Amino acid sequence: MPLQIVRNDITTMRVDAIVNAAKRSLLGGGGVDGAIHRAAGPELLEECRTLGGCETGQAKLTKGYRLPARYIIHTVGPVYQDGQHGEEKLLRSCYRNSLALAAEEGFESVAFPLISAGNYGYPKDQALQIAVGEISWFVLNHDMLVYLVVYDRQSFQLSRHLLHDVTEFIEERYVQEEDASVSASRLAQESQEEPPPCYSIRHGVFPPKKKPTAPPPAPAAQEDEDPYPPILRIFTRRDEPTAPTPDLDAMLKQMDESFSQSLLRQIDEKGMTDAQCYKKANVDRKLFSKIRSNPQYKPSKPTAVAFAVALELNWAETNEFLRKAGYALSHSSKFDIIIEYFIQSGNYNIFEINETLFAFDQTLLGSH
What we know:
It is a single chain. The chain is of the alpha/beta class and 368 residues long. It has helices spanning 31-40, 42-48, 87-104, 124-139, 160-191, 230-236, 248-253, 259-269, 274-280, 285-293, 301-310, 315-323, 334-344, 350-359; strands spanning 3-7, 17-21, 59-63, 71-75, 109-112, 145-150. It contains 14 helices and six strands. A hairpin with a 7-residue loop joins β3 and β4. The relative contact order is 0.11.
């Protein structure tokens, strides 16, 4: 996936560069800044002293030293006041300038923290929207793997409105499932007969003896009754019709189009290029090449759903499309219900969908 949201410690990320939410002096501090300086070692501070600081919204590059990442992009986020002092513009500049620097250096992978969402007080839901918006726009136009690294759940918050709507949507469907289950259980209980009385030979309690009853009289033989037993009838009754044997070869020739064939057909029908489709699906080019070159390729369910979102299929079309890959959506899975919420709402923003899936601890779209 070109954009991945992960819960991790950014100092452990093995990428070309990690982004440091730095102070203007670039000489270290608290939070992510202090953690990166400690992990990189004193050599980082020595190089930072030569840079002369960094203005808010700008970005500068240093080596990674003792970090798994080869380089560090230092950017200075805005301190949040009230949202009326250019904070949003400056925060967007942090992401844009950092990504531009990464592209200029030819980096293939970079990891961001949620800039300004810690000690600088930027509202976390707004900081998240800006981060995902800027990164998603960038990866649509560049081949780079970008991670948004979240240290803990407290640092990741969806907008209250979206969180409320999705939670309510999930709960409504879980209630419907539960009510149906309870009704079925109650109906089964009501249909059961009264249990027989319990007898115990050990304690000398025996069931009452039943009076013997005469066997029913045998029915009178009819003149046209079949004289052959059932086991012989198949050999002697040749006039009875038999079911035709299915032709497996003919059935195999009537197979529906595969997932890969359906995907490529719909890309052409919608006038999209391959690149537009796989980037909109948050799927990397190598995986798309595998799907294109192999008509029988079976993707993972998140990847199949990602392409349904990229093609902007409606609910019925999505279910038919997934069926070609051997999958179905149901109300027994939070993942499926969240996908239903967005498709029924006509919201095909895959990055917003992934934000929501991440918030509910579900697999993200586009993953293998």
